[in-house]
């Protein structure tokens, strides 16, 4: 204690500064421990601990430690100035790699990405550039887009590597059959030999109905049904759950550079099984415990998107049938060979795994699988009658699960991970090669 008093007399400003910073850190730690999920608590505690570290070191090390912390503070200030310079440059030149992907309303598609922002090309799709000609164009929703994985890891990128061909990805999360028709028309500008449609059983049927709420598609509506206007741009007010997250969210919101760094760190941590318990969300759904393929299954919401006894899904099926017929006309007139890649619900693959292993299958998952088998027959019939080649990598994906390879994230996220996307891309590639 005497050394601290002596330091306070000899270096009052430095010690006061470190003490103030430490006090802020202590507030962040206490508040973080009281509020939020473990991932939000971890951010706040880590941030607070870093702020408390200098004063703790000074208290233990005395004057030498104070000099060391002063030097560290100078280094941090220098780094901050460099980040400010980089931020100014990024904003001045609007560098695509630093900008944040921005979604805007679109009268035809419902929503779309702003071109040349956040890794999107001149057309607003997730590619490095728009080629003059593409050998293959992949159309789809978030499964084709590659939500939660890097662009280079989605199945269209794996397809490009497998075929050693130019593959262009035209997909956006939330899209469905209506958007697939519009994108198919636009894809012809690239003069493709092959166009693939990634049909996702998780929500494509529901999306076929809900996007009739757009005025552009009003002539296709069933007069006996209601169609609310889809709102895929404004996702509501997301409030930070503690002071530490408020600071982090504020920096991510207002800084192009820190947003870029933070997004990469968050994605890398989420894809790391050892860190996923902190960064990912382990809430919701039913846990399936089996080593590396442990995950959480959430059949309830999926059942609501598969039950053809529901009026809006009956309508969605009618819309899908018409869309497939339009796709046939588009591709036939352009002499393009169409493929449909079937992407099932995460719970469907795990159901088949549990069945193979003769494990007890929860009733909701069994019900979802029953509905999905029925719907698969319908979609396959629609696709084949529309002249499309159907590719279903289910056996390969279930085999991977049986071999202990995770094909989905360990939380309730139902998007294929890097391994799952690689398997799907190769299955699609083999089918295209064998045409």
What class, by secondary structure content?
alpha/beta
Which bin fits the share of residues in helices?
Answer: 40-55%
Total separate domains? 2
Radius of gyration (CA) equals: 26 Å
The H-level CATH homologous superfamily of the largest domain, spelled out, is: SGNH hydrolase
Query: In the CATH hierarchy, what is the architecture of the largest domain at level 2?
Result: 3-Layer(aba) Sandwich
Number of strands: 9
CATH uppermost class of the largest domain: Alpha Beta
Q: Enumerate the strands of the largest sheet in spatial order, edge to edge or round the barrel.
A: 4-3-5-8-9
Strand content: 5-15%
Largest sheet: 5 strands, parallel
- Which fold name corresponds to the CATH topology of the largest domain? Rossmann fold
Q: Write down the overall mean pLDDT.
A: 86
End-to-end separation: 80 Å
Task: Please state the overall shape, judged from the principal axes of the Cα atoms.
Answer: elongated
User: Helix segment count?
Assistant: 16
């Amino acid at each position: 204690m005497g050394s601290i008093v002596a330091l306070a007399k000899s270096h009052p400003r430095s010690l006061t500064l470190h003490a103030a910073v430490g006090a802020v850190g202590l507030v962040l730690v206490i508040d973080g421990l009281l509020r939020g999920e473990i991932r939000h608590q971890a951010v706040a505690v880590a941030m607070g601990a870093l702020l408390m570290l200098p004063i703790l070191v000074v208290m233990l090390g005395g004057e030498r430690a104070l000099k060391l912390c002063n030097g560290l503070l100078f280094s941090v200030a220098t780094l901050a100035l460099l980040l400010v310079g980089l931020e100014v440059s990024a904003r001045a030149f609007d560098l695509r790699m630093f900008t944040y992907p921005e979604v805007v309303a679109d009268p035809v598609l419902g929503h779309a990405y702003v071109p040349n922002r956040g890794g999107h090309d001149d057309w607003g799709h997730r590619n490095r550039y728009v080629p003059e000609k593409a050998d293959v164009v992949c159309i789809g929703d978030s499964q084709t887009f590659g939500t939660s994985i890097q662009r280079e890891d989605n199945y269209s990128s794996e397809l490009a590597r497998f075929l050693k061909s130019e593959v262009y990805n035209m997909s956006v999360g939330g899209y469905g059959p209506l958007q697939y028709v519009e994108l198919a028309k636009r894809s012809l500008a690239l003069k493709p030999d092959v166009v693939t449609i990634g049909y996702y059983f998780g929500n494509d049927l529901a999306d076929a109905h809900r996007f009739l709420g757009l005025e552009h598609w009003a002539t296709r509506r069933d007069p006996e049904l209601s169609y609310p206007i889809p709102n895929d741009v404004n996702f509501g007010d997301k409030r930070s759950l503690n002071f530490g997250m408020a600071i982090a969210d504020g920096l991510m919101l207002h800084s192009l550079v820190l947003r870029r760094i933070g997004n990469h760190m968050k994605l890398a941590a989420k894809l790391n099984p050892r860190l996923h318990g902190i960064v990912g969300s382990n809430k919701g759904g039913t846990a399936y415990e089996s080593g590396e393929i442990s995950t959480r299954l959430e059949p309830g919401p999926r059942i609501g998107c598969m039950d053809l006894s529901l009026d809006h899904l009956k309508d969605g099926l009618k819309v899908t049938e018409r869309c497939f017929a339009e796709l046939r006309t588009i591709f036939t007139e352009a002499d393009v060979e169409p493929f449909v890649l079937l992407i099932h619900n995460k719970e469907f693959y795990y159901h088949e795994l549990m069945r193979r292993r003769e494990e007890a299958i929860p009733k909701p998952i069994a019900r979802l699988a029953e509905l999905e088998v029925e719907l698969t027959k319908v979609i396959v019939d629609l696709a084949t009658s529309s002249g499309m080649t159907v590719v279903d990598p289910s056996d390969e994906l279930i085999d991977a699960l049986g071999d202990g390879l995770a094909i989905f994230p360990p939380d309730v996220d139902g998007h294929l991970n890097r391994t799952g996307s690689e398997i799907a891309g190769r299955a699609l590639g083999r089918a295209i090669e064998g045409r």
